[in-house]
Amino acid sequence: MPTVLVTGANRGLGLEFVQQYAADGWSVIAACRDPGTATELQATAAGAKGKVKVEAVEITDHAAIDAMAARYRGTPIDILINNAGIIGPVRRDIVRQSFGTMDYAEWQKVLQVNLFGPMKVSEAFADHVAASDQKKIATVSSTVGSNTEMKAPVYAYASSKAAVTKVMGLMAETLKPRGIICLTFCPGHVMTDMGGRDANVHRRDSIAGMRKLLAAATMEKSGSFTRYNGETVAF
Ligand SMILES: NC(=O)c1ccc[n+]([C@@H]2O[C@H](COP(=O)([O-])OP(=O)(O)OC[C@H]3O[C@@H](n4cnc5c(N)ncnc54)[C@H](OP(=O)(O)O)[C@@H]3O)[C@@H](O)[C@H]2O)c1
After folding, report:
1. In a domain? residue 220
2. Would the CB of 84 count as within 6 Å of ligand 1?
3. Residue 233 lies in a domain
């Protein structure tokens, strides 16, 4: 069975990726910040007969990412999913990522997680992916990063997702000679801690959609930005 590595695996979309791949019998490497408090993920791992391995990784800690990559040296990883992300200050705090009142420390934090995180994890695990059968790297971005589809002035989050989408496009070119397919997804507006209760997509459907796209993806799709339901996101 193939192997998938998922970041931000303890809740929301990451946990759903883990649960769906595990249910299909995949080997899953589930990376999260704090395995000690990841109750639902640990329960999933306990019921998966050793197929789900939980790893502690803070995505802004590049040394920890390198150390994890070294621990898995020689293990082919068919699909790497860069899912961990933060939205930055919202609700009453949204002024901290608004024009005129920007909190640059917060912006930096958002870029460290949403932009540098996927880049660093992809760099660290490119050899593992290249050694696999499927050879795919996906990053969960957002339509909020699109210049044409959304104009929400959440400067930190929107710029981080625009930048990571661009980076995935570059990565597609860089990794093409190694046979690695790089994909960027928008999961839709999904009911998670981040998406909130008013979201219109269930996480089960969002993840099922992205998994279907991942399964079907060929090199021709590398560098594309696609919504969970298969629609192309205008970038
Ligand atoms: N939900 C939506 O509507 C929506 C829409 C568009 C895009 N997205 C994107 O989809 C991805 C998943 O979102 P979600 O809705 O599942 O969000 P979520 O419920 O807030 O979960 C975010 C995940 O990222 C992890 N994470 C955050 N900062 C981290 C760090 N520094 N190191 C390691 N892990 C970290 C969190 O871990 P902790 O529990 O330790 O904080 C958690 O597992 C994100 O990239 C998000 O931007 C979501």
Report:
1. yes
2. yes
3. no
